[in-house]
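worker-3 :: picked Glycosyltransferase family 2 protein
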Amino acid sequence: MIFIVIPVFNRKELTKACLVSLYNQSSPNFKAIVVDDGSTDGTDEMLAQEFPEVTVLKGDGNLFWTASVNMGIKEALAQGAQYVLTLNNDVVADIHYLESMQHHLKDTSKALIGSFAINYKTKEPDYGGAIIDWRWNKTTYLLDVLPKEQHYGLHRVNHFPGRGLLIPAEVFQKIGLFDEVSFPHYYADYDFTHRADKAGFPVFCSFDAKLFTYPEESGDRQNRRKKTLKNYYNHLFGIKGGGNLVNFTKYTLRHCPPQYMPTFLTLGYVRRLGGYFLK
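worker-3 :: tokens ->
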């Protein structure tokens, strides 16, 4: 059985749509754990009334993504989970989503398997994982190089977010949980996939396990909508800032080979300082 951990903060209707899609699966063999980090929009009442089978854990509003996910993972492991799927609430799962995930476990029981993201509104592919080449300071996104006729099955990556990431319990036993101290919100998932890969747990994207996403709902996208000095500062230094320079630096120091670090950091800073105004 797969334990699904979903951190939430408000956005009640998105959480509801996500859970409805899970309970309508072709293979609904799972347990859901929702970590509600202090929602004020009636999320707790909705969960109690419409999804009484869901385990709900409560935070005080200061957990952010990483500590929320870790709280849910600890509960899942305490209940004997062999596999944990981390999932955001702003997604809708394809009806065969979990069936596809379970199918791949037959041959990749010690691998992390990520989900293929499709834009809910346009129905166009949005994300299929990435490979970082430290030497050339290059991030290759699979959707940029993989022909459309190959958008199926498993594809090897080393850089993947926690939005729809299936993780064997053995991984947590070997490398621990997500690093909520160094990366309280962003980068914890990327850091985790690199740590797992180094520890001998390969990372794949399953192009068969489809999640429909709302890219515009991400905190970073919303921060970019209105270009102000305050939002620019939050982009570079805020906990929810997609271009957070501190997080990027910690991530690079931890994973980039020393000989490539100066170039990787320099180019990364330039992209983050200027990229805010280009998107």
